[in-house]
Write a structure and sequence with these properties.
Shape of chain A: globular
Order of helices and strands of chain B: EEEEEEEEEEE
Number of helices of chain B: 0
Helix content of chain A: under 10%
Radius of gyration of chain B: 13 Å
Structural class of chain A: mainly beta
Distance between the termini of chain A: 41 Å
Shape of chain B: globular
Distance between the termini of chain B: 36 Å
Order of helices and strands of chain A: EEEEEEEEEEEE
Largest interface: A-B, 25 and 27 residues
Number of helices of chain A: 0
Number of strands of chain B: 11
Oligomer: heterodimer
Chain lengths: 113, 114
């Protein structure tokens, strides 16, 4: 079945460092791809999405490009802030009737001043 | 717009008991999905409700059941609780027929089974 694989964390960075969190997927069809963020004690917030190959999703300085040839959707940010510390989840949208989300295991990002 | 609201926020139950969790979708949304997030893991799809019917179910036993009301709100019921049911339960709402649009998540209900 469809699945998502994320790099394990934690990822520890200094403020203003460059961030990459790797995400690859396995899917039989053409899923939509998402990055969600979860701050401590909170639910999930959509960070960005891409619905077809070569689309780039972007939000709050974060970017990810839907790469069909490498089945990847890596998250990047040029300069992280302490406030970016959170858990980041890569997900794909099942192409069945329900559009259910299939998540990776999450990557914790810790940014220090 | 209040977004997706879930209640209660925290709950402690004893093994073998039953629990009901509640979710009100974002205004204008008609579809509710439930997810279980174990500690340190990604959310796992439990089931989805649309037009008051269960549309798809993940790999969860029949102890997990749900309901959707005419106002689109939803309940998740878990019977015969096990210690392994301890998790954050997330509700997500969306609008059917809009393709690959975003699902809005609530803050979750933290269930602890002792």
């Amino acid at each position: 079945g469809d699945s998502v694989t994320q790099m394990e964390g934690p990822v520890t960075l200094s403020e203003e460092a460059f961030l990459t969190i790797n995400c690859t997927y396995t899917a039989t069809g053409y899923p939509s791809l998402f990055w969600y963020v979860q701050y401590p004690g909170e639910g999930l917030q959509l960070l960005l999405k891409a619905t077809k190959a070569d689309d780039k999703g972007s939000n709050k300085g974060f970017e990810a490009t839907y790469r069909k040839e490498t089945t990847s959707f890596h998250l990047e940010k040029g300069s992280v802030q302490v406030s970016d510390s959170a858990v980041y989840f890569c997900a794909l949208s099942d192409q069945g009737d329900t559009d259910k989300l299939i998540f990776g295991t999450g990557t914790r990002l810790q940014v220090f001043p | 717009d209040a977004g997706v609201t879930q209640s209660p926020t925290h709950l402690i139950k004893t093994r073998g008991q039953q629990v009901t969790l509640r979710c009100s979708p974002k205004s204008g949304h008609d579809t509710v999905s439930w997810y279980q997030q174990a500690l340190g893991q990604g959310p796992q799809f439990i089931f989805q409700y649309y037009e008051e019917e269960e549309r798809q179910r993940g790999n969860f036993p029949d102890r997990f059941s749900g309901h959707q009301f005419p106002n689109y709100s939803s309940e998740l019921n878990v019977n015969a609780l096990l210690l392994g049911d301890s998790a954050l339960y997330l509700c997500a709402s969306s609008l059917k027929g809009t393709g690959n649009t975003e699902a809005f998540f609530g803050q979750g209900t933290r269930l602890t089974v002792v």
